[in-house]
Amino acid sequence: MNAGLGRTRPWHAGLSAVVVLTVLPACLAAAGPAARPAKPDPNQGGATMKIESTAFAHGQTIPKKHTGEGADVSPPLTWSNLPAGVRELALICDDPDAPRPQPWVHWVIYKIPAVCTGLPEGVPRDKQLADPAGALQGLNSWPSIGYRGPMPPPGHGVHHYHFRLYALDKPLDLKAGLDKAGLLTALKGHVLAEAVLTGAYQR
């Protein structure tokens, strides 16, 4: 959520998002023509799909680097235990604690190839990504394209940011620039599984 419901972002905030990354593939491909689901994790209480980050554990504080008070780059994400038959992935990050009727949307990314096992830190704010090849990004609540990090109103308490991963049963014919509502409409009837990673932040 942008503090900004009235708050102006510093002119230099976007500049710090230009980060030199090591030369690694944005999407780590599983062997074979389709994603191979891993064995269920016994620590997940029977869940078949899991999303994690090396930047923060589930329920813990998101580092300032990944917020509007820092470099404002997307956190690294990995996932595992994809269901059989998955053909494509999508991800939405939002903040239901925002002082507004609907959650404040921080990230909409979709058409992620099913062979991907994660996303790197600092995904570019482009409508279409070269890596993962074919992945598209939509509008957040600012509105702009790509990831924008936590920036809750000062003194508003702890906000929770849900990174929700969707495993889909077919590749969807979509264009870049969808908002959360548009993507969720397109996903209806095609979701095989969901997994959520929740981070927290307050100012």
Describe the structure.
The chain is mainly beta and 203 residues long. The protein has one domain (49-201): PEBP-like (Phosphatidylethanolamine-binding Protein, Alpha-Beta Complex), CATH 3.90.280. It is 4% helix and 25% strand. It contains 1 helix and 8 strands; from the N terminus they run βββββββαβ. Strands 6-4-3-7-8 form a 5-stranded antiparallel sheet, with helices on one face. Strands 1-2-5 form a 3-stranded antiparallel sheet, with no helix packed on it. Strand 3 and strand 4 form a beta hairpin. It is globular. It starts with 49 loop residues before the first strand and ends with a strand.
Show the helix and strand layout.
Elements: E1 50-52, E2 77-80, E3 88-95, E4 104-113, E5 118-119, E6 136-137, E7 159-168, H1 180-187, E8 191-201
